[in-house]
Amino acid sequence: MEARIASAAAAPAAAGASGPRARDVVLVAVATAVAVAETLVRSDLVWPVPSLIVTLAVLPGLLWRRTHPLVVVAGMTAISSGYEITAWAAGERASALGAVAVMLLVPYALFRWGSGFARMLGGALLGLGVVVSLAASRGDWIGAAAAVVIVGGACLVGVIRRQRVDAHAAARERERGREREELARDLHDTVAHHVSAIAIRAQAAQALPPDVERSTTAFGAIEREAREALAEMRSLVRVLRGDEASAPLQPIAGLDEIEALAAPGPPVVQVRAASAARVAVSQMPQMAQNALFRIAQEAVANARRHASGATRVVVELAVSAAGVELRVTDDGSAAPSGASGGYGITGMTERASMLGGRLHAGQGESGWVVSAVVPSARDERNASS
Q: Against a cut of 0.85, is the pTM above it?
């Protein structure tokens, strides 16, 4: 039990917390104006001025509710509880302004953004505040119970939101890992190809009679193969695969495999590549060719699965200043999964960015469009580093 409590307390704060944001400033300004106006027009307030002061004292905490939720909860609890205790001691029931309802964002932020320790201690402080509110309610148990439910609901919404965001981030990370494993397999196959060529050329050079010209040619070819393998490996140095040594060798996909995506359908899949694009693709590093194929393959699969009513999918290859551009379009009425909530787009983007390229996916004029640019020439800085 103690170990579980210690583990829960050690949980880090959620990533992405920032503040104050411009909308937070606007929210505080609007709530302040509403509180002042409410104080002026309401006649049922027992202590109008103290109620306004308390409200104005806690509202600034909204600015830092994401980055310092525990501090904000502690301050809000101390001020509100002190006010209720003072009213109870004076024989009155503390009256609250409606504008203070915006402070429900504080318990939400505590459980959405706070660390494990902050949530545990902040939850205890919120509970203490609820106890004080119940004691000072002077018999208004319905109102006190409603306040408990509302505050508890805000905490629950924060917990649910955080779990959903964490689950989405974990799913994205799993997709990134899957894509890196595929890239690592491609890297293994590419390097194995070059090393095999090096070994064959070296064996041939040893088998032939001594000849300076043939030896120079053989060593030159070996050097080119070695540089090619080194450059391919360094271009994906971030990709790690522990047991890839036992992976079966497979041909590296390229232009032929992209053209093989053409199919009679439905939907009909067409592959178009101008002669300049064919030449550019054939001269690209093998890893870049394979990346183009993998992106095209995923984009076509997405269109087939998710483009409602699509009759045609077009795969186009063109040459641009940034490299070789791959464009996959369909005439369906709905965007493929991966544009919102799926992870196919994430994987394609990861693959393109690792090679120094970029990818964009979105709704076009007549259907869904996936556009990727992969550099046609290897980055010599990476190859020589």
A: no
HEC readout, the chain:
CHHHHHHHHCCCCCCCCCCCCHHHHHHHHHHHHHHHHHHHHCCCCCCHHHHHHHHHHHHHHHHHCCCCHHHHHHHHHHHHHHHHHHHHHCCCCCCCCHHHHHHHHHHHHHHHHCCHHHHHHHHHHHHHHHHHHHHCCCCCHHHHHHHHHHHHHHHHHHHHHHHHHHHHHHHHHHHHHHHHHHHHHHHHHHHHHHHHHHHHHHHHHHHCCCCHHHHHHHHHHHHHHHHHHHHHHHHCCCCCCCCHHHCCCCCCCCHHHHHCCCECCCCEEEEEECHHHHHHHHCCCHHHHHHHHHHHHHHHHHHHHHCCCCCEEEEEEEEECCEEEEEEEECCCCCCCCCCCCCHHHHHHHHHHHCCCEEEEEECCCCEEEEEEECCCCCHHHHHC
Mind listing the pLDDT tens digit for each residue in 253-298? Answer: 678 888 888 888 678 888 988 888 888 888 887 778 888 888 888 8
